Amino acid sequence: MTDSLPLPFDQDSPDEDMMANPYRKNPPSEFDPVDTLDEAEAAEEVERLVEAIDFHDRRYYLDNDPVISDGAYDRLFQRLVDLEEAFPDLQQKNSPTRRVGAEPLDELEEVEHTAPMLSLDAAFEREEIEKFEDFCRRNAVEASTTDFNYFAEPKFDGLSAEVVYENGEFARAATRGNGTVGEDITRNVRTIRTLPMRLNADAPPDLLAVRAEILMPRSGFQEMNKRRIERGEDPFANPRNAAAGTVRQLDPSVVARRPLDIYFYDILRVDGADFSSQTEVRDALDGWGLKLDDHTTYCENVDEIEHFYRSIDEERETLDFEIDGVVVKIDEFDVRRVLGERSRSPRWAIAWKFDPKQEVTVLRDIAVQVGRTGKLTPVAMLDPVEVGGVTVSRASLHNIEELHDKDVRAGDTVRIQRAGDVIPDVVELVDAADPRAEPFEMPARCPVCDTETVREGPLHFCPAGISCTAQLKGHLIHYSSRDAMDIDGLGEETVTDLIEAELVEDIADLYELTPEDFLTLEGFADTSAHNLYESIQGSRSAPLDRFLFALGIRHVGSHVARLLAEAFGTLDDVRHADVDALQATKGIGPEIAQSVRDFFDSPGNNEVVDRLLTLGVEVEPIVGAEADGARPLEDTTFVFTGSLDRFTRSEAQREVEDLGARATSSVSGNTDYLVAGDNAGSKLDEARERGIDILDEEAFVALLQDVST
Ligand code: IVH
């Protein structure tokens, strides 16, 4: 490595310099009022805030070792928001406040990469690695050293991207595309919190282009899918699809809410520095504050490579991100140079992919499964076959369009594949049976409850909802969830046990359960049985919007439920509204209108709703102000700070907006109320200073109720 460029190994020096920055420690609880600062003072403070927030982001997201409290962090962040609001010219291109998103675009632009992004040759068998090793060893003789190592690391199963820093500042990011030209995803990548906006170096390179993989961690993926299901949206099939769909999103604020992560593994181009090995490259990346994965090792020969390959394969399921093999690279760059590159891939590296986990078998029949949201999925019933150590006898055909595209029919021989945790797929037809069966068609009626199915694009649904037993479990969990009827203590496990014990066949049965019934289930004692009984009994009354939401009608999330409740006022009116009337409601499109109509057209659903009412469930009508669409909070401005128990920030904002108020992000002379939840930040101090009315959550809820009646 040359000494022409101060490399990040002396990373401590910028930290030391900046130790003077007071915002690296706990920030003051009060700041000088924004309007007492002149532009120069504000500029200086913005600089300090940005530097400190970057520092705290690094401690929190990369080192998992925060040095200040969340509340203190929020205060710093809010201070920056306030300063940028008062002095808009001072907002930096890479300000932390820009990481929450930007205006949506119509399309992504094309960008040329700083250097071509090569691909890797793939190997599947040990013999191919032996060939690679043999080739490297023979050719390395020409290099100054024959003593070299293989550096082995996981092959991330995400999206490859180029990330560019100019003078240490994050400048842009692009997808791999065709290797030369990719798509500009700068605004989306900016929202990834583990990505530093500024390199940790006092004299960063003029230009640094690094190669990274963008992933969605499994944990975040599961959590996100759960929320999607709860909101009545379709879940993503796997983390890779979710990451791919997210990275190319046109609306960065959507991206900001999705749990992406980024790992770096290579330098595409760096001006003014020279590295002599992968090891040095990694040290540099690490020093600059770019995130690396540590499941790496050095190998000297094929046996060691194979050992690593097998152990990572075993460990695979325990990693928080998906990998599809290992990458083996020669560590020493002088050896790499001797070996050179092919047109698309280097000769000094190879990807050893894990078993594709594909197998060929006979498809005996096609069954139809009804999921918990009522979606009908065609499922291939297979001659059992072992795929990657697991016996598979069923595989998904997803929907009728995919099934017809692949044109697989009963009796055909098909290729199936198992990828990650997800259920196996039918990949393609291998051999058609002779004579062939008729093409498969989806049933006109739900195979579980016999209700006529409905089609939406390529998908079929059973609209019976709560009266279809296949959907019961999901519906019971949804019905009792916090934003629905809020039945404390009725979790997934108890719901499963209740269904298995045949104690409930629909939602209404919940209200006929006795403490004795719970005592027959595992894990219940007198007190817990009694408590659950009480919380079910206590859930008998709910405002119309919550009740509508609780019914789990397709496309009716809590927001739509509220719109319906406000427009129609009573359950009876919603129930009997025709599609036109439903569609005439603000925010309700044809798809939702039809879904509501379908739900209430089903005799089974009506029966359950009637029984709920007979068993004493009281649905409170929405009357007066709300129903009239009146705006009792017109000309009132709210600011929210800290976290509330009963609402997310956006739900709370919507509540007040629905009543005609405005919700803004910072406290000013126009603010009427500050709603302060837990860990309220600097806005609280500011509101106190200005003598603004401060509401805690309880007072806020009371105010909402007050103005709504
Ligand atoms: S090194 C010169 N290391 O796999 C090629 N690539 O099949 C440098 N990938 O497009 C690539 N994990 O996006 C390298 N640890 C890793 C990787 C990795 C995933 C991707 C990379 C490339 C693809 C090649």
What order do the helices and strands come in, and which of them pair?
Blueprint: H1 12-18, H2 39-62, H3 70-86, E1 110-112, E2 122-123, H4 126-140, E3 150-156, E4 159-166, E5 169-175, E6 181-183, H5 186-189, E7 207-215, H6 218-230, H7 239-247, H8 252-256, E8 261-270, H9 278-288, E9 297-299, H10 302-315, E10 323-330, H11 333-339, E11 349-353, E12 358-370, E13 375-387, E14 390-396, H12 400-406, E15 413-417, E16 425-431, E17 454-456, E18 459-461, H13 472-480, H14 492-500, H15 515-519, H16 526-537, E19 541-543, H17 544-550, H18 558-568, H19 571-576, H20 579-583, H21 590-601, H22 603-614, E20 618-620, H23 625-628, E21 637-641, H24 649-658, E22 662-664, E23 673-676, H25 682-690, E24 693-695, H26 697-708
Parallel strand pairs: 2-11, 19-20, 21-22, 21-23, 23-24
Antiparallel strand pairs: 1-6, 3-9, 3-10, 4-5, 4-7, 7-8, 10-11, 12-13, 12-15, 13-14, 13-18, 15-16, 17-18
Helix pairs in contact: 2-3, 13-14, 17-18
Bound molecules: 2-(butylsulfanyl)adenosine (IVH).
Word description of this protein:
- The protein has 709 residues and is α+β, with helices and mostly antiparallel strands.
- It folds into five domains: 14-99, Orthogonal Bundle (Helix Hairpins); 122-353, DNA ligase/mRNA capping enzyme (D-amino Acid Aminotransferase, Chain A, domain 1); 358-431, OB fold (Dihydrolipoamide Acetyltransferase, E2P), CATH 2.40.50.140; 465-620, DNA polymerase, domain 1; 625-708, Rossmann fold, CATH 3.40.50.10190.
- 36% of the residues lie in helices and 19% in strands.
- The longest helix is centred in the first third of the chain and has 24 residues, at 39-62.
- The termini are far apart.
- Mean pLDDT is 88; it is low at 1-16.
